[in-house]
Amino acid sequence: MLELKDLQKTLVAPSGQSRTLAHKLNLSVNAGEVVAVLGPSGSGKSTLLKIIAGLEAPDSGQVLFGGVDLARTPTHRRGFALMFQDFALFPHLDVLGNVAFGLMEQRVNASQARQRAFDMLQVVGLAALTAQKVWTLSGGEQQRVALARALITQPRLLLLDEPFSALDTHLRSHLREEFSRRIESAGIATVLVTHDAQEARTMAARGFQLDDGRLTNLW
Ligand SMILES: Nc1ncnc2c1ncn2[C@@H]1O[C@H](COP(=O)(O)OP(=O)(O)OP(=O)(O)O)[C@@H](O)[C@H]1O
Ligand SMILES: [Mg+2]
């Protein structure tokens, strides 16, 4: 289970103006559960995911997983997968290489990693594009590479930032269902950031609005 305890984060702009993105913020997410975070642009949703992932430090408060405080655990040791809003694919690797990367990091042998990456690419409908350079892909294709890359390492926590925003209606509903099923069966705790209230309600058992550094329970 993920637990955020009294998280505090204030940014100070070069002008000296300060802005609180998290004000004594508390949240827990159980294994296999999806919790949605909605909120206006700039309210700090992506920053919150980066704090959970360990890419940004909170000013105070704790991020715990399974009761363990992660303050001293670097990002790559947390066992989390973060899917960035801008995908952040590796430009020097092809589609298969991007998806297999996390498995290679886990020291899965190369042929097995490639096979599992291929299987995952089939799930997101990209099996025909495995050898393509990622910068030649369309936005929706890149988003699906990022989705495949996030799910393949079997993370204990999945952080999804606008994961289906670039997809057409058909793909979006197909992949929402596919992800919901896998998250539940693999028991992955998931934080879903989205602007799409309908998507949030379909996928998440609980939803919160982030505004002025505070989370308000919506459902
Ligand atoms: N490292 C940083 N340094 C300075 N400002 C930052 C930093 N990270 C985020 N910000 C600012 O903090 C605010 C929150 O950013 P964040 O990306 O978390 O918003 P968001 O809720 O994800 O917005 P969107 O819905 O547009 O994706 C923004 O005003 C952003 O410019
Ligand atoms: Mg964002």
- Biggest beta sheet attributes: 6 strands, mixed
Beta-strand content estimate: 25-35%
Q: Numbering strands along the chain, what is their spatial order in the largest sheet?
A: 6-7-8-3-9-10
Number of helices: 6
Bound molecules: adenosine-5'-triphosphate, magnesium ion
What level of helicity do the residues show? 25-40%
Q: Please count the beta strands (DSSP E, at least 2 residues each).
A: 10
Shape: globular
Low-confidence stretches: none
Distance between the termini: 20 Å
Secondary-structure-derived class = alpha/beta
Radius of gyration using CA atoms only: 17 Å
Mean pLDDT, nearest integer? 96
The ordered H/E elements are EEEHEEEHHHEHEHEE
Describe the fold and architecture.
The protein is built from 6 helices and 10 strands; from the N terminus they run βββαβββαααβαβαββ. The chain has helices at about 45-55, 95-105, 110-125, 140-150, 170-185, 195-205; strands spanning about 1-10, 20-30, 35-40, 60-65, 70, 80-85, 155-160, 190-195, 205-210, 215. The longest helix has 18 residues, at about 170-185. The radius of gyration is 17 Å and the shape is globular. Bound molecules: adenosine-5'-triphosphate (ATP) and magnesium ion. Magnesium ion binds near residues 45, 46, 85 and 161.
Quick description:
With 219 residues, the protein is of the alpha/beta class.
Please name the defining characteristics of this protein.
219 residues; alpha/beta; 4-stranded antiparallel β-sheet; 6 helices; binds adenosine-5'-triphosphate; binds magnesium ion
